[in-house]
Amino acid sequence: MTEALPQFTLVRPETLDDALIALQATPDAALSAGGTDLIVRLRKSLVGSDTLIDLTGIKAMNSIDPNENGLRIGAGVTLDQIEHSDLIAQTYPAVVKAAASVAGPSHRQVATLGGNLCLDTRCVYLNQSHWWRKANDFCLKYQGDTCHVAPKGNRCRAAFSGDLAPALLVHDAEVEIAGPTGFRREPLGDLYVEDGATHLTLEPGEILVAVNLPASIRTSDYEKIRVRKTVDFPLAGVAVACDTSQEPPRLWVAVTGTNSRPFLLDPPDDPMLSPADEAFFIALQKQVQKAVSPQRTTMIAPHYRRLSVAALAVRLARRIL
Ligand SMILES: Cc1cc2nc3c(=O)[nH]c(=O)nc-3n(C[C@H](O)[C@H](O)[C@H](O)COP(=O)(O)OP(=O)(O)OC[C@H]3O[C@@H](n4cnc5c(N)ncnc54)[C@H](O)[C@@H]3O)c2cc1C
Q1: Ligand 1 touching residue 83 (CB < 6 A)
Q2: Count of alpha carbons within 13 Å of 199, Cβ hemisphere only?
Q3: Taking a C-beta distance cutoff of 8 angstroms, is the pair 38, 6 a contact?
Q4: Sorting pLDDT into bands at 50, 70 and 90, what band is 2?
Q5: Exposed/middle/buried for 53, CB within 10 Å: 0-12, 13-18, 19+?
Q6: What is the dihedral of CA 311, 237, 159, 283, to 10 degrees?
Q7: pLDDT interval class at 287 (50, 70, 90)
Q8: Which domains does the chain have, with CATH numbers?
Q9: 286: CA distance to ligand 1 center in Å?
Q10: Who's near 146: CB < 8 A, 6+ residues apart?
Q11: Residues forming beta bridges with residue 212, ordered by sequence position
């Protein structure tokens, strides 16, 4: 059954101030960047508003700027720009790899960094047509009262599947957020909470403006597990970064796709364990398996995702350590 795009009002501010004013005037409006995810959700009646505020005309959000502390990437920068940025590739290789792994090339020409970081959570019981969801009494995330993935629980288990977040997390990224009361800056990890229904900590009226990356001497990498290698969301994605100037080298690991939020996890902290020893990688594998919490949100078994995300973390750690 085709799902026609419903009627909506499009507001097209040219400055951040105008966007904030528009958002205050219509608090339930949805922000639209590349629209690659939002328009799909609009067709499936998953957007609770008939007003969209298009952010693409705001030039101040569309540049990549080096500064004395590192690099500032506007939320409106496209994934294609990130994929082809020498500035980003030189210092933050995982970020370029993560951007290049999103969907296909034409998709990346419009999909943005902000849209990727603020991507809605996904679930097999949610990303369906309206009539399918209605036939199943909807679900806890939208119009229903039960999470079909974990019916005995009281929270939505939909999974966050953006590729960029873990790659930015292992480089200690911070986000700049603008809202009715001004600007704030916080670690990227604080943008998320473990709740599939409301996984973002953005307050009403707030817009993600930019991501700041500190100067870095870390090497990094990103890979994801997916059903189709050409175009697909991550069933699980892992970013790793390593500072080899420390002895023993320090490792950072972050994951996406397994929980309602992307997150950094602690690498093995036993001082007796060195990456020179096989025991370090065995400990890392166990630690990742314990930290992640994949649910029945995809057609692929949670247990498979738990084992494979841990194996992927070990593979990447061996590669860069
Ligand atoms: C076929 C297909 C394949 C895909 N494959 C992948 C994949 O492999 N990996 C992946 O990560 N994603 C994938 N996606 C999802 C999506 O296309 C990308 O995540 C993309 O980066 C979203 O960016 P966008 O600019 O198009 O966001 P939009 O669709 O415009 O917005 C996404 C969400 O972010 C919010 N938002 C956007 N900008 C801001 C901002 N500045 N401040 C606050 N909120 C904001 C919007 O309100 C919306 O809720 C896929 C989508 C499709 C349709």
Answers
A1: no
A2: 27
A3: no
A4: low
A5: buried
A6: 30
A7: very high
A8: 1-57 (3.30.43.10), 58-214 (3.30.465.10), 220-320 (3.30.390.50)
A9: 32
A10: 137, 139, 140
A11: 72, 174
